[in-house]
Amino acid sequence: MRNDKSKKTATAWLLATALVVGLPQLASAETVLRIGMTAADIPRTLGQPDQGFEGNRFTGLTMYDALTLWDLSSAEKASVMIPGLATEWKVDDADKKKWTFKLRPGVKFHDGSPFNADAVVWNVEKVLKQDAPHFDASQVGVTASRMPTLASARKIDDMTVELTTKEPDSFLPINLTNLFMASPTKWQAFYDKAEGADAKAKSQAAWAAFARDASGTGPWKMSKFTPRERLELVKNEGYWDKARVPKVDRMVLLPMPEANARTAALLSGQVDWVEAPAPDAVKEIKQRGFQLQANESPHVWPWQFSRIEGSPWNDIRVRKAANLCIDREGLKEGLLAGLMVPATGTFEPGHPWRGKPTFQIKYDLKAAQKLMQEAGYGPSKKLTVKTQTSASGSGQMQPLPMNEYLQQALAECYFDVQLDVIEWNTLFTNWRRGAKDPTANGANATNVTYAAMDPFFALVRFLQSSMAPPVSNNWGFINNPKFDELVTKARQTFDPAARDAALAELHAASVDDAAFLYVAHDVSPRAMSPKVKGFVQPKSWFVDFSPVSMAP
Amino acid sequence: MLAYIARRIVYVIPIVLSVALVCFLLVHITPGDPLVAVLPADASQELAAQMRTAYGFDRPLPVQFGLWLWRAIHGDLGSSIATGRPVLTEVLRAVGNTVTLAVAAALIGFTLGLLFGLIAGYFRDTWIDKVATSVAIAGVSVPHYWLGMVMVIIFSVQLNWLPAVGAGPGGSGAWGWDWEHMKYLILPAITTSVIPMGIVTRTVRALTGDILSQDFVEALRAKGLRELDVFKHVIKNAAPTALAVMGLQLGYMLGGSILIETVFSWPGSGLLLNSAIFQRDLPLLQGTILVLALFFVALNLLVDIAQAAIDPRIKRG
Amino acid sequence: MTVMSDTALQAAPATKARGYWATVGRRIARDKVSMVCAFVLVLIFASALLAPWLGLADPYQGSMIRRLRHIGTPNYPLGTDELGRDMLARLIYGGRLSLIIGILPVILAFVIGTSLGLVAGYVGGRLNTAIMRTIDVFYAFPSVLLAIAISGALGAGIVNSIVSLTIVFVPQITRVAESVTTGVRNMDFVEAARASGAGPFTIMRVHMLGNVLGPIFVYATGLISVSMILAAGLSFLGLGTKPPEPEWGLMLNTLRTAIYVNPWVAALPGVMIFAVSICFNLLSDGMRSAMDIRN
Question: Which residues span the domain enclosing A545?
Answer without folding.
Answer: 1-63+218-294+525-552
